[in-house]
What does this fold into?
Amino acid sequence: MVRRAHPKLRALGRGMVRLATVVIALEIILQGCCWWGGEQGQILTWTLLVPWFPVPREKGWWVGNQSVLADDRRTGWRISANVNGVRAGGEGPFLVETNSKGFRDQEHSYENPDRRFRIVALGGDTTFGDGLEESQSYVGRIERSLPGTEVVNLGVIGYSPDQQYLLLQDEGVRYEPDLVLQFFGWEDIEHAFWANNPLLGRKCYLTLDGGGLDIRLPQRQAWEELVLSSRVVVPLKTLAFILRFCFQPEFALAEPEKLAERPEAIIRLIYRTQRLCQNHGASYLAVYVPTIQEFLPLPPKPAREAVRKILQSLEHQHILSFVDTTPSFRQAVQDPSQPPAFDPQTQHLRSHGHRLIAEQVAAVVSQRFAHRLAASHDQEPSW
It folds into this structure.
């Protein structure tokens, strides 16, 4: 005698079959739209999905009909090459244009035949200039304020110091820079240990393994490669990831049991970055950029001061050169006559915040590298 399954189990089975049928049908429709309609089909696909699901990283940062972010086997993601489009920002629409190497900058050759003083800038969203025109970012302002200087902007959305080190190693030193500027924020000490960024996906991460510093590259299984090509599963996976991160933030950490090793790992990474610069004949200057949270009446959080204290300590030991822009921002925040330095909605820097950074960094560079800049032609700073 064959026993029949429980009615509830049969109902559950039918429900799962129906759900799978809907998902497969939707997947076929959306893949067909993208295949048949090309870029316009992709835009239509994500226009239909965005109101219902968080947009996955591969298609989540659009300008016009182009995705700004693409996969990278070493860092996790990178900026797409030859992007040209307009996005909405806190101070109005702004142009996003990337060069053939995938950076928000003009084309730069690796060689420097004219021997202009060349600066390479490393950083995340703020260095990229998210929210405003490239000319209004501190990278663009620094270049205009230092006559005869060429600044190569290697800022990438969401990058932490571990990713920046790999980018400097793979790309930055090829430009034969005289100076490398690395811009830090308080979240960097945390994000450098994430194996998964809640919004941007898998990434490399820092670890102290056997007493030595190691940067572990992203590990992605074969099934994940298949999932990343799905128009239906990726938004669902992203939603589940964000929900889990909200209730269990340590989920993003690669090795949560090694929290006490974070400061030492960051110090060693800074040493390694500075040594890489010196081995290629470049000086190194660390710049700390505060966030709006540091000026709000929030409960104290040690992580907000960790990076800044590490950089201050290394400077006091005469190990590295360090520029702290916090006092300038504190004065700007407390002075109602000054324009706002931060966008209260996105929490990104506004153009006045970029100006504060550019003025301070340019002054330090002018003073410390006067002998290299003296040969440049005179030019008034254009702020």
Summary: Residues 1-52 form one domain.
